[in-house]
Specification:
This protein is of the alpha/beta class. Belongs to the peptidase M17 family.
Amino acid sequence: MDLTFAAADAPVIPLHVIEQDSLEDWLADQPDRVATWVRGAGFTAALGTTLLVPDAGGAPEMALAGYGDAGARARGRFHLATAAMQLPEGAYAFHGLDPARAGEESLGWLLAHYGFDRYREQKPALARLVPPEGVDPARLQAIAAGEALTRDLINTPASDMGPADLEGACATLASAHGASIDVIRGDALLEQNFPMIHAVGRAAAQAPRLIDMRWGNTGPTLTLVGKGVCFDTGGLNLKPGASMGLMKKDMGGAATVLGLAQMIMALALPVRLRVLVPAVENAVAGNAFRPGDILTARNGKTVEINNTDAEGRLVLADALACAAEDPPDLLISMATLTGAARVAVGPDLSPYFTDDAPFAAALEAAAVQVADPVWRMPFHTPYETMIEPGIADLDNAPKGGFAGAITAALFLRRFAGPARYAHFDIYGWNPEPKPARPKGGVGMGARAILQALPRVLDL
């Protein structure tokens, strides 16, 4: 796939973006031949519709893209990505599009070219876009490349994306941008005090590991921690088959922070970036950790295991504790952590938790600007008692089922230390195809974070 804009010297076909209530006014300004063609084709400018208009010789003279009305547009995003998929090969330039929407629609056009082609040839869009005035083509292409990396990692099955493969993907990314990488594997995790990462991953065929990537020498410090559970059987609390089918995406947090890291490095943001990925497979074997076990985390807190399927918070806890030993200016964790978050907000929103009001304000403004919706959830301190079992410091799976996303986030907060901290409980999967977002793995929250960073870190 080629997620880039059209060459500057390409012959350009005008693409007129027309709202429904403006169609007749637009037609009144066109030659009779064009108006007759458009009316004869039944084009109404409904959202998502397109029409190619030929010149007198039959070659494409212009194209039309229906932009509906404000109510229709509010029910989705990246609306002109549909035109990218429907129009024939060529280079197109927007006409009549509100400049405030040019960035979103240009990025959506690029992402419409994404196709996961590792195992089967895909047919991405052939229509290219000339970048509109006022957008930064290099920035949008870097963002599209980061999103494509996230999607590829999530879409790859665990047979080709186990802990060793995820490490390889990190190494490739580090090499491309001059970052350093350090990896602690297998029993060395015990020797270097990452006991919960080891416990969760020790039953798998591929050894568990902690991947530590660093980039940048100046500026504020930013640490990203991503859950890298490459497949989650549920462990000895085995998932039913219906719940196991999508578990290749349980490393979606790692995939998303790596996509975000790619964006940050490609755009040369003036930060000192650290990425921590605990990469494991939660498998079943004679040495698997058990319900009732009590584990001691890196920071010395004890954790009673009441469900081995609540493993993501365990591996994140050790990684967060490591990050907290050298507190960054901003610490962010991302994970496909709880079904409760999906029940609360569905698959399209990125729920996040933070006690930092300025971060939340910056993030939510950024999310609107870049069409990457987020939703703030509460670190509700009175629920702390729900994660305190009495026999140990913490409970990894509180009974009762109430507030599952909140109790998981409160668990993680115990390990994040004094840093400004935000946790994202994302889904990482698009269950139905939508403009610029085919069914499958998808990044969530990364673009909003990228947009917010200059304000949050005073870059």
